[in-house]
Specification:
198 residues; mainly alpha; single chain
């Protein structure tokens, strides 16, 4: 890890903490920093881990395709932890490591099949927004909400991204629930500011 986390990792304590550290060391060889960060709000940590376990049980799409898709999302968003971890997982799952290694430069690489390229393009297309959270913004929220509050807010926003991006990608639109309740129409969005770097 090259920098410091915006929320300092807490000391992982208690019997539950001991079990989690033991499991992490046995499966990963170390205790990830992220566990210490999320330790400030243990319910978020456990619920996110639970969702992750459920996602891993899904079996209607090839494991290699899913792994590459996750890696390209991580690469596009700039999540070095996820990219590194999924590369590590690709190795543990005995996936094609030459291809896994090439995911961050998949457009220039010649190792991917047409289906793999389509999967990578789809995952990237769903991930177009570049996060722009600044240290100042994070510090302001930390001072107002505290560590656990910011962690919960972050998890809720991540979950919102999970559901909304999936709906947009799948073309799922409003079912008119607000109209059925006689609510005033929602305000229309104003023009969005240009993305950073555009």
């Amino acid at each position: 890890m090259t920098g410091t986390t915006r929320i300092p990792a807490a000391e992982i304590t208690g019997f539950k903490g001991w079990l989690i550290k033991r499991f992490a060391r046995r499966t990963l060889g170390t205790v990830p920093t992220s566990i210490g960060v999320y330790w400030h709000h243990q319910q978020v940590l456990m619920d996110m881990a639970s969702v992750g376990k459920k996602v891993q049980k899904w079996d209607r799409c090839d494991e290699q395709l899913k792994s590459f898709a996750h890696m390209v999302v991580a690469s596009r968003v700039g999540c070095t932890w996820c990219l590194d971890f999924n590369y590590f997982e690709a190795h543990n799952k005995d996936l094609d490591m030459e291809k896994a290694r090439e995911v961050p430069r998949w457009r220039e690489s010649g190792v991917f099949s047409p289906l793999e390229r389509a999967v990578l393009e789809y995952a990237e297309a769903m991930t177009e927004t570049q996060p722009t959270v600044t240290d100042d913004l994070a510090e302001s929220l930390l001072s107002q909400l505290g560590e656990a509050g910011v962690l919960e807010l972050t998890a809720v926003v991540a979950f919102a991204n999970f559901t909304t991006r999936a709906n947009v990608a799948l073309g799922i639109e409003s079912d008119g629930f607000a109209d059925a309740c006689g609510l005033k129409p929602l305000a229309q969005p104003t023009t969005r500011p240009a993305a950073v770097g555009s």
